[in-house]
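Blinded run. Sample ID left blank on purpose so nobody reads anything into the name before looking at the predicted structure. Input follows.
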Amino acid sequence: MSPFELLEPATLAEAVALLEDEDTRAFSGGTALMLMMKAGVLRPKRLVSLRRLGLDRIEGGASLRVGAMTTLRALEKSEAVKRGWPVIPKMLRTLSNVRVRNVATVGGALAHADPHMDLPPLLAALGARVTINGERAMPVEELYAGYLENTLRRGEVITHVSIPAMGNGRAAYLKCTTRSADDWPAVGVAVVLGQEERIFVCAATDRPTRIGGEKDIADLPIEGDLHGSAEYKRQLLKVYLKRAMHEARNASH
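Blinded prediction complete.
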């Protein structure tokens, strides 16, 4: 791994200014970034730590506001999240392992833009929005441009995520892993049923992708990889969509 300088700004404005440099990357949990640096995929000269910016709070109420530096484990254990959005901790219990969830952050999981991640499709189905630099907001699904490509501009970081109340809505997230249970999924399906039906798929596509139902799967551009061929994943999606719809219909409020 190439040597780098670690910077720890005390304010968001300072962090944003530092990130304007093209040889600088934001550092949150580092679970994916460090692997990519060790593999030589990324060689930043400077990392800007976001840990001192106060972005690790969870605020419940009519809606949920989650700071970008909140760890996945903290999100999983939050009583406010369990009460109002029980599908989130249920999904997180199947995401990798506790060691990773203790370090990985919400903002990092979203910004990394790996289509195999479980959190982005579920948050997209829940109608969540990300706020950039504390100012600009967008739906979670608009954060993605393709495989490992997000739409953040230089000098931009995710500061928090806002998730609307579920009300009487019901939700489910299911995934199929072809190896161990905590491995990357071959397919993932997030379903939210309420006034509006929202279905997002992941892992089979190069980004979280919204579909209208099983009729859309036939024409969906599927990405084959080590977890399965495109046609195998297409069949898996049909099966797991039916299961996810059934689970959502039978979920408690």
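Unblinding after everyone has recorded impressions. The radius of gyration is 18 Å.
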